[in-house]
Amino acid sequence: MKLMIFGLDAAAMNFIKKRIDKLDYFKEWMDKGAYGTMEPIKKDGHMYDSMNLWASFYTGLHPIEHTLGGIPMRVWNNENFSLSKILKPEVKNKLFWNILNKRGYKVGLFDGILMNPVFKIDGFVHSAFPLIDGSKANYPENITKHIESTIVPWGKPRNCEEIGVKFEEINTESTLKKMTPHYWYNYLLCRYATWLRGYNSIINIIKEIPVDVLFYFDIGLDGIGHTHQHDPNDKVLIHAYQTYEMFIKKFIDKFKPDNVIICSDHGMDKVKNPKLDIDFGLKAAEKEGIISGNHSEDAMLIMFGKDIKEKGELKDWDLIKIHNKILEVCG
């Protein structure tokens, strides 16, 4: 395989550096290649949402150039959560997989955000997030038999009522104690099962449809990061990043790609709140649980391989530059 790309939504470079002594594989890959904290893509000082950011990665274009005016896409279950809807028709030929197909590379896309309903490609596509059309989650359709089901549901973190906290008590030490460090650990179990399901599914698909380039996406660090910044020991966050590096290592060992790129759209950091005499605060997402983390401007990048000449810590990189790097590696 020429290139393997991992899109890890909300993976934070600052956290990886902070806990690098616990993250053996991330450290190994950083030492052997290049890494960096990426520049956020912004408008009027504000970082774009994940939908726009990943679309910039796909196209190599700023959100103003690739979407219908760069409008934030934050209304769930909206058909605008689809590349076929948000991308201007004249820029669809800039999608990295379309360019690579024209160059003769077969491309596999698995669980990519914004890719449902799926589309024709020289390779394969599986995408069900956000799910717009369940009947169009796989291309070609015959790969459906290879897609394992997810056996652990997403679920939701416990809300205020479920942990016995009144709304006005959110920003208190007693709330922290009731949340416990492992507040939404079940979601990490879901991500473990999801990665295992993806790994097994891709092995079976590639036996039938070999590809030169594989893009694998996972949304899980976003939810885990939003709900576990309150623990000063980072127990669940460490487990999460260790789980992710473990599965990335499994993919690398199995397919032995010439080149690897691991990247995210943004990071995650503690909610700041002066009411608490600690370095983080809490806030309630109505009926959806308690949030202790916000998106931060420390998206991560790690890349290495025989066609990647960069070494050491990088400056001034963003998702658009990574798009161009993909095209360079597969020149």
Question: Would you kindly provide a written description of the structure presented here, covering whatever features stand out?
Answer:
The protein is built from 12 helices and 15 strands. With 331 residues, the chain is α/β, with parallel strands linked by helices. The chain has a single domain (3-329), classed as Alkaline Phosphatase, subunit A, CATH 3.40.720.10. Strands 7-6-5-8-1-9-14-2-15 form a 9-stranded mixed sheet, with helices on both faces. Strands 3-4 form a two-stranded antiparallel ribbon. Strand 3 and strand 4 (46-47) form a beta hairpin. Helix 3 runs parallel beside helix 12 and helix 9 runs parallel beside helix 11. The longest helix is centred in the middle third of the chain and has 24 residues, at 185-208. The chain is globular. The mean pLDDT is 91.
Query: How large is the share of residues in beta strands?
Result: 15-25%
Domain module count: 1
Question: Mind telling me the CATH class?
Answer: Alpha Beta
CATH superfamily: Alkaline Phosphatase, subunit A
What is the chain-wise order of helices and strands?
Answer: EHHEEEHHHHEEEHHHEHHEEEEEEEH
Distance between the termini: 14 Å
**Sequence of strands across the biggest β-sheet:** 7-6-5-8-1-9-14-2-15
Low-confidence stretches: none
Sheet with most strands: 9 strands, mixed
Instruction: Give the fraction of residues assigned to helices.
Output: 25-40%
Under the CATH scheme, the architecture is 3-Layer(aba) Sandwich
How many strand units?
Answer: 15
Summed up, the helix count is 12
Which fold name is given in CATH as the topology? Answer: Alkaline Phosphatase, subunit A
Radius of gyration equals 20 Å
